[in-house]
Amino acid sequence: MPHIDLQKIRKELGELPIPKIQRPNRTNLMYWLLSLVFAVFLWCYIATTIKSDYSVSFSKIPVQINLAGTKAESYGLTIMPTADGSEMNMTVDATLNSTRAAIGALNRSDLVAYVDFDSDVENTVGIQTFPIRLRTTTGNFSEQNVDIKLSSSFIELEMDRYEYLTVNVNDIQYPNLRYDEETRISTDGITVVPSTVQIYGPSTQLKKLNHIRVTVDDNEELLQTKTFSGCSNFALIDADGNELPKEAFSMPTTRFDVRIPVFYSKQLPVTINVSNLPDSFDAATIMQRIRLNVNGISYTLPQYGENNLMMTIETTAPDEKAQLDGLEAWQIDTIPLSQLSVNSSIPVTISMPEGYSDSTNLGTVYIMLDSTELVAETRWIKNSDIVFMNDNQKYRYVLESPGGNTPITLIGTPEELEKISSEDIKTSVNLVNISVSSEGVYTQSFSVTLPEQVKGVWVSPVPTINIVVTVA
Length: 472
What we know:
Blueprint: H1 6-15, H2 26-49, E1 54-64, H3 71-74, E2 77-79, E3 91-98, H4 100-103, E4 111-115, E5 126-136, E6 139-140, E7 147-150, E8 154-173, E9 183-185, E10 191-193, E11 196-202, H5 203-206, E12 209-215, E13 226-231, E14 234-238, E15 243-244, E16 256-260, E17 262-275, H6 283-287, E18 290-294, E19 297-300, E20 310-315, H7 318-325, E21 330-336, E22 346-349, E23 356-358, E24 364-369, E25 375-382, E26 386-389, E27 395-399, E28 405-412, H8 414-417, E29 426-430, E30 440-445, E31 447-449, E32 458-459, E33 464-471
């Protein structure tokens, strides 16, 4: 090991010149301070603005889907629910690249993923594509500082807008109600309150809605017309008869009052009555000849033949049903005997008394006679043989042609007509029926009385004469 001469080293160091320490002036101190500030600023700039390779990842960040305060909300748009009715619980994974200072302290709870309903929204209904953004709980990232990559950058949502639609309540079901064979429910007469409902919901669903169906759940025997109150079993029906989900709509009411009219019915043969029969006249003679004609088919009256015209009578009231049950035939009209003639028909339009209806809808029935072996024969009556009855002493009554004759028409069989001579016919006119307001000529009908032994002859039409009335 070589020898080190410490004495020599000390001597040489002692001979070196020692610099004189000078006291710094103000200018040098200013330069030093500015250099320090610049160095600190440069370090901060590099640390905060110049990207580095620092990266951090976060998984399963919930995506907020909220329209409140967005442009989509200002358009009146809303989000349609999912097809299966489940909630949209979407999450995304995020990778952030920036400086450690910018993102190094972030936690998953500091980040918010959300759907942007402002930038690309359109004022239309249907499926729209929206971007997914990421921000912090305190605000948005600066795009110059942080590079963000999301596992899903867009989402497709079905957009709609809520509107009002007035829907009819016109489909009433009553599957469990019971009624007997003589009872009929008038489906056309069923009413419901309310009969229309204003429904609020998404427009695409409202377009599918056709009507509301209400079901009466009661299972009682329906004996009379009844209103079922507060029926809550209802469904929203589309044009194809399918039910739509109620959850998509808002309604002002979910209860309905349903009135179901009950008709009691009874089928009865149709008959008519013939009035003004002479005392000696045999009613069966005319009743068995009467025919009721409907659509070219002739029917006999009940008790005078088996081919009867049947009519179904209905009523809604139990009291009227009791009256209906006591009838054996339904009389549609009363015809004076004098209106019945050979080869003529009398139209009778069916009109029902209050509380009853004709479910057969007969309309008009024509009254005719079976004119087999019937003849119409004209006889002449001397005017001088016509007797005045119940004359007013204030007036004088004179036949317009007192010396003449007036014709009458007799209807009957030849055998019966042969029994009648002109001397057997008695005639009279009842002057009490003349409403005299001034002198003049008045046309008045007169009555004809046939001999009692004739049972099946009558006069048709009613004969008339002219009477000259003057003040007595």
